[in-house]
Amino acid sequence: MVQGILGKKIGMTETWRDGAMVPVTLLQAGPCVVTQRKTQARDGYDAAQLGLIEFLKPSKLNRPQQGLMKKHDLPPCRLLREVEVAAGADPKPGDQVLVDLFQEREQVDVIGVSKGRGFAGVVKRHHFGGGAATHGSMFHRAPGSIGASAFPSRVLKGMRAAGHMGHARVTVRNLRVIAVDPDSNLLAVSGAVPGPNGGYVLIRKSIAPRRQRRGFAGSTTVDPLKASKKRAGKK
């Protein structure tokens, strides 16, 4: 099937796992429906376009979206995003994608738009230390020097300065699934998720999951120093 699902961020809470408190984020994952199928032969890549099913008047969609939904007899979908397709899978328009796509202890990547912070200075935006806070320093939260005046006589590209902060696409990788509730389309993941409560997110299976620590789940740990001495002794 597909490798991801669309949803909304509900908010954060906490739970207890193995005697430790774990901060979790609740996500409304789906229900989604496949609206389009991208193929290698026709489009040059393999993907599936998903639509998040919500209560929405058809008049709220533009003409191309209305035609797409009418063509496949689909409910109105406000949010449309493309996700990868698993090897050997061939989803068709109209197929449902539900939260049972994920399992507990699985690792996922969550993509969202971070909160907008407006125009911010260098201390807040780039964590500059600023100058002395004593009376008369006149250098409290200023950016400081940005380069020489004679050469190159311009501001170098990429200079860290004040500007628009936030409201950018952010991907948080390798969040562990704590709980899955198929009846309510809820997904609980460990840690924080970008964006405000009610913001749309894309949840996909982790593309680079963390490996288990050495010595975890019954495997033995190896001391590299002892191992190197052992190899040297054999020689």
What are the SSEs and their pairings?
Layout: E1 4-17, E2 20-29, E3 32-38, H1 40-43, E4 47-53, H2 63-71, E5 77-83, E6 96-97, E7 107-113, E8 116-120, H3 122-126, E9 163-166, E10 169-181, E11 186-190, E12 200-205, H4 224-234
Question: Can you put this structure into words, describing what you see?
Answer:
The protein has four helices and twelve strands, in the order E-E-E-H-E-H-E-E-E-E-H-E-E-E-E-H. The protein folds into two domains: 4-119 and 170-234, Translation factors (Elongation Factor Tu (Ef-tu), domain 3, Beta Barrel); 120-166, no CATH class. 12% of the residues lie in helices and 37% in strands. The longest helix has 11 residues, at 224-234. It is extended, with a radius of gyration of 25 Å. A six-stranded antiparallel β-barrel has the order 1-2-11-10-7-12. It starts with a strand and ends with a helix. It has 235 residues and is mainly beta.
Keywords:
single chain, 235 residues, mainly beta, Elongation Factor Tu (Ef-tu), domain 3, 2 domains, 6-stranded antiparallel beta barrel, 4 helices, 12 strands, 37% strand, extended
Task: Report Rg.
Answer: 25 Å
Strand count, sense and closure of the main sheet?
6 strands, antiparallel, barrel
Q: Specify the CATH homologous superfamily of the largest domain.
A: Translation factors
Order of helices and strands: EEEHEHEEEEHEEEEH
